[in-house]
Structure formats: structure tokens, C-alpha cells
Amino acid sequence: MLKDISTISPIDGSIVVQRRCATSSEIQAVLAKATFAQRKWRQLSLADRCQHVQNAVAELVTARAGIAEEITRQMGRPIRYTPSEINAFQDCALHLISIAPAALADVMPAPVSGMQRLMRREPHGIVFIIAPWNFPLLTCVNSLITALLAGNTVVLRHSSQTPLVSERLVEAFHDAGVPDGVLQYVHTTHADTRLIMKAPEIDYLCFIGNSSSALMVEQIELGRCIGLGLELSGVDPTYIRADADLEKTVDAVVEGAMFNSGQSCSGVQRVYVHASRYQEFLDRAVVEVEKYVLGNPLNASTTLGPLVRLSAATTVREIVGQSMSMGAKCLIDIHKFALDNINTPYMAPQILANADHQMKIMQEDCFGPVFGVMPVQTDEQAIELMNDSHYGLSASVFTQDITAAMQIGAQVQTGTWLMNRCDYHDPALAWSGVKQSGRGVSSSYLGFVQLTRVKSYHMRSW
Q1: pTM check: above 0.90
Q2: How many CA atoms lie within 13 A of 310 on its CB side?
Q3: Share above pLDDT 90 across residues of the chain, in percent, rounded to a whole number
Q4: CATH 1.25.40.180 applies to domain 4-232+437-460
Q5: Does domain 236-427 correspond to CATH entry 3.40.309.10?
């Protein structure tokens, strides 16, 4: 018996999408089509592939309003923010198109008489991308666009919370005239998704999701000689030094913690504040957080939507409760947020003062509109605490001393180090994680290295 996908909207609990999962024969047809298409796609000139992809991005952008509303209905982000994800997708894609010629150019060693030598990047073949629901376009853009520009074909499987995103992407590429089979989607059960991961047709796997699921992915791919990219959870820290401009800092940190209801892999969850500014930071942060409007995300006035599902909100509430039982102080009066209800995904934001590293808020991936705050006495203490984590996706410092920021950043175990901003990805820079936050690189010219394999040419003239 076939299983269906039913996407339940966190807005009101209604079913907004229903899809039939692909059968085994349909999955095999997708893989066969991708294999056939890749032989021709890789033979196109890079300029032609770039033009195809650029046309597809333009098609996607023309449907921005409709796609934005679909994303909001599927996962609950306020409609005032969702269109910006399509804009960010476009910016990242166009940047990758612009750097592709240089990133994929032959590398020529120093000349040697009588020999011609070069290293050339070639596509892997078929890339399988498993993408999450929280930023369904932005999380997949780097792997998707880089893979296609490099000459791979792509099979895309989005979370069952946002299945329409895969469909809209494939639709945009089709309408732009991209050859059939270059980009396809599948809606599959978890069991069939695992079978695709193990399929001999798959040459590279990109998994974007949480760290616990990544352990399963690694086990499935164990013993297979294919490439594997993992973009995982963060539990990201920020450090506010004594010289920080608190007015600007509080705005940035609160937004970094609350945007998308805290459902961001690089969102701020751990905040360390120099003791001399600790109380001032808390006072300002409370004022800023209480400005948020918790409500129906389809309303233009809403700035904080529901979490993706009730079970997610329940987990976040449990983390808050555990932290309170260990001495953390809740600074936000949840009664000021009328829609906060333990029986729904709607949850008031929260700041946990007096946090410490025995509490889950400072150790586990919370994925909700909550952050913990600790005072620190020195840069050295802040560095030690930031590194006291199983994760290392991004981290940040707020200071007016760029030299100190560089020195601190050199000692923090993280994939990305930011000064005076947080929860931010620069498309010109590599996106990577350390420890349990990932493996490999996406974005920048280094992303092309990951999604290709190198072939060396050594030709001797007699």
C-alpha cells in the first residue's frame, strides 16, 4: 500500500499539501532519466549551463509572491519575511554563476619543457540533495546551483513539511528550457529515501539537516566511495565585549535569535556578555523581544510565527523548563503574548538569564525563539565557553576592536566567525562546520571543489 505525504500547516492545523509517495519503479525511472540527462548536460559548454541556470532562477523569481505564500502556509514563517528568502536564493545563485568560470578553470602547474600538464574539474554525475523545511530554498541553493553548473544532474528531496518547494524549483527549470532530467524531485518515504542514498546511480550525497539524522546518513554511506556533504546543526554562540555598541548589538543579537521563530541552524542560542554590560544588555534585550508580535503568519503585522509543529514547541518548552529548574530566570512575561498556548505551536519568545553550561539551553539544539545569557569576566573565559560545545557552525563577537575580534576568532572552534553580525551567510565565503556541525564545504569557489572531482592530465611530447 502506498503512503501519502500530508503537510499540516502550523498556522491552523489544516492539511495544505497531499502527495503520493513515489513507487520503486518511479524512483528507478527518475534515476535512469538523471543518468541519461547527465551525459548530455556535462557536454554543454559552461557558458550554456550558466545561461540555462540563470534563466531558471529568473523564472523562479517571477513566481516569488506565490512561492512565498506557499512556504508560509507550509512551515509558518511570517509572510512579511518569506519573500526575502527567494531574493536571497537569487543573490546566491547569481554569485555562483558569476564565479563558475574561474572556479572550474583548468589549473596549470609550472611549465616543463616537452610536457603539457593540467588539472581539470569534472562532475561527479548524479547528486542527491536532501533539504530541510526551515529555509527550504536557501539551504539548498549552494549545493543545487553549484552541482548543476559543474555538469552534474540533481535529484532533490525536500522535507515533507515543504514538498511544494521542490516542485516549484523543477517547474522553474522546466519553464526556462533546461533539458529534461537535469533537475528532478522525489517525494519519498524515509525507507525509500534511504534506498536512494544507497543506489549505485547516486555519485554524491548532500544532506542538510540535524546532527542526529546525519549519524544515520553516515552509517548508510559507510563503505561507499562516493562524496558526502553534511550541513548540520549549530547551537551558535555570540560574545558581547565591554566595548560593544549595545544599541546596535541588542538589535542584531535578538534578531539572530528570533528570526524564523529561532528555527535556524545558525541562529543565536548562547549569549556571553562581559559582566560590566550584562545587566544593561538584559534590560535592552527584554525591551526588544517584547516588540515581537506573535500571530498568524499570513498577517502582515506578525513578526513571530508558530513553530513548525506542536511537538517542536513542546521540546522547546521542555528545554526552558529544565533550565528554570536549574536556576535560570525567565525575563519575558509570556502573558504579554496572547497566542502563547502549550497546546499549539504558538510559543512566546523567551530570554533565560543566569544560564550555565549544565542547562540544555546552552548545550542542545533548541530550534526555538529562546536564548540563554551568561556573564563573563574576560575574553579567555568567553572563548572557553564558546568552545564548550559539540557544535561549531558559526559564532560571533560584538566589539569595536577588529584586532581583538580576529584574535578571538582564531581561537574559537567554528566554521564561520562573524564580527558585529550573526546568523549571516556571505555567498562569497565558504559555509562549513566543525565538530558535529558538518563535513565539507558549500558556497564560494570551494563549493565547486566539493561538487566535482579532479582529473590530472600529464602529456609528454616525444
Answers
A1: yes
A2: 7
A3: 95
A4: no
A5: yes
